[in-house]
Design a protein that fits this description.
15% helix; four-stranded antiparallel β-sheet; Immunoglobulin-like; 3 helices; three-stranded antiparallel β-sheet; 7 strands; alpha+beta
Amino acid sequence: MRNFDLSPLYRSAIGFDRLAQLFNEAQRADATPSYPPYNIELVNEDQYRITMALAGFNRSELEIETERDLLKIVGRKTKSETQSSYLHRGIAARDFEHSFRLADHVKVIGAKLEDGLLNIELKREIPEAHKPRRVFIDGEALQAVSSPEQLQAA
């Protein structure tokens, strides 16, 4: 396991202490669950989809929760009254809890369970206040100059 020295980042960047925390969480091998299998898909520039394979789960056994920058999906399989005798059991039907860190301004916009696949739709919605804006010097708007005549007149 490698240790990364992030001190050069702290010399020129402010507020990236959360990035260091994310690096530490990503390095923990025990924090990466392999069940259930899932895909993370980039649908459009600001739209994402998480697809989880949840064979045998129904809606009442699933819980999806968001809190600030964390998306948590929990599956609690209800115990069957009858005991089955399996010759081969390849379909896992165990409880799980899976968490995803969401970037700033990424919101969950919907979820759908269909054909054993849970699809969670996400969208990045950047507030108007955080979008790029032009800053004018001394409050004056600069005019775009498109011809030499306009340059001489200015």
